[in-house]
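Agenda item 2: N-carbamoyl-L-aspartate complex prediction
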Amino acid sequence: MTASNATKVRHWVGIETVSKEGLEQLFADAKRLEAEPLEQKRERLRGRVVMTMFFEPSTRTRLSFESAALRLGAGVSGFAEGETTSAKKGESLEDTVRMCAAYGDVLVLRHPVLGAASRAAKVSSVPVINAGDGTGEHPTQALVDLYTIQQRMGQIDGLHIGIVGDLCYGRTVHSLLLGLSKFRGIHVTCYSPSPKLALPEADLRHASLAGLTLHEGRNLRDIARSVDVLYMTRVQSERFPPEREGSTASSGLADYVLRAADLDDARRNMCILHPLPRVTELPVEIDALPAAAYFEQARNGVCVRQALLQSVLS
Ligand code: NCD
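Presented output:
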């Protein structure tokens, strides 16, 4: 996608520049890879090295990338916290990236700073995959989300998606909206439990979202009744600016919970997604419902990331 013309390195920094056809190709590859026998699969990236550079906590993203790499026969190196690297001694992100690019064939980078992945792509001689940059983007999560929607619903065009929770600081939401904007006839109903967590004005004015029909939801029950897909997210309190700390409970966020009763009038084949981790917004009572698709979504992380690794390394 955001290929630098000089080097033809295929970076994956944001989802905006990927075409609908590009997404569909990855989904088809993911589906094929999921079914491919292991002996065949582990020849695909034999001898390659995937570097996972995680400066922020992660369970699903890092481990599914590593599992994807190992199952394709690649080796994995890297770190799960920046504290163990020379960043602790004051090394710049750019220099750490240059070093990892000298040792690996692709860098999977998660960093707390918005724009970190695009800074990395500027200095890396190998593809950089953005695994989350602060409040910015999480394009591979959007790939997993869209793939899961396609698998569950049979198509993405024409669907009505409810996106709820922290639309301000949640980077998965930003990438998902950009990803959905590639498809036709999509309605999105947004709902955040506090006005402070609403989709930022700048995002709403984003030209790429012009193709989506956006609505504002009033409450979870109303939204659950009208959508095909309910995409829940947790409140990203660790990303609140300091002046907002402590105001969580008082601003009503504590009441942001999806109850089984909210789904009483939901469409028969409606599904619930969540990038996870969940906190209190998605109680375990929901897990047993046929609509709950979030663990399946997390499992899809492996085949989707296999398709992506293969694509940037081919
Ligand atoms: C998300 C993230 O890191 O942005 N997690 C993930 O990768 N599945 C969502 C979150 O942390 O809430």
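Discussion summary: The first helix runs from residue 20 to 35.
Owner for follow-up: CH.
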